[in-house]
Amino acid sequence: MTGGSKNDPFLERATDQVVESLPDVDVDLFRLSFVLTRAANRFSRHVESVVHRRRGLTTAGFRILFTLWTSGPLPAHRIAILAGLSRASVSSVVNTLERDGRVERSRDSTDRRVVTVSITSPGVAQVCEAYEAQHELERAQYADLSSADRRALAAALETLIDTPLDQSLDGSSGD
Predict the structure, then answer these.
(1) How far apart are CA 78 and CA 57, in angstroms?
(2) Model pLDDT, residue 5
(3) What element of type H or E holds 88?
(4) How far is C-alpha 102 from the chain's CA centre?
(5) Inter-residue contact 102 to 122 (CB < 8 Å)
(6) Residue 106 in contact with residue 80, Cβ under 8 Å?
(7) pLDDT tens by residue, 34-71
């Protein structure tokens, strides 16, 4: 084995396989990406099942409500960018949130094509309640990290977010 987490045999098997089969791969970069992806997915799934689903929300629904709560009324395309969702997802989820009274749509008085989405009072109450519950999970998840370690990890991840994605391989638009 290549060292590292003794608690994650899958990570070790994956690392060993990459080292054996792909000798030109930077194993440290592989492990960083592998662990970062697994940690983010694991925590996201946990928050969705323990917090959001119990409150009648999906992760996308929470992200839209949180975006509107922190940013104010926005057109759907801005919600998509800020919440990291596709426009189609935003449209579908906003329909549900609107049906449930958590958001409302309004048309711009000067350009009727522009539709703005706003969070309602029940939406604010729900996003605050959901985030308070999520924060309790965050406390538990990061309890073993010192305050300095949490700040350093957040700063490193913010640097990653600020780094443009390489589009040379797939031709997509990135973020």
Answers:
(1) 21
(2) 54
(3) helix 87-99
(4) 20
(5) yes
(6) no
(7) 999 999 999 999 999 999 999 999 999 999 999 999 99
State the CATH class of domain 13-157: mainly alpha
User: How does pLDDT run across 4-43, given as a tens digit for each residue?
Assistant: 455 789 999 999 999 999 999 999 999 999 999 999 999 9
- For the CA atoms of 107, 111, 114, 115, the dihedral, rounded to the nearest 10 degrees, stands at 0
Averaged pLDDT, 129-136: 97
Contacts of residue 142, defined as CB under 8 A and 6 or more positions apart, other chains included, come to 150
Q: Domain locations in the chain?
A: 13-157
**Would you give the DSSP letter of residue 145?**
S
Structure tokens at 162: 């600020």
Which strands make up the sheet holding 103-107, listed edge to edge? 74-75, 115-119, 103-107
How many CA atoms are closer than 13 Å to the CA of 130, on its beta-carbon side? 27
In this prediction, residues 143-155 reach a mean pLDDT of 96
119 beta partners? 103
CA gap 109, 106 in Å, rounded: 9
Cα–Cα distance measured from residue 46 to residue 100, given in angstroms and rounded to the nearest whole number:
24
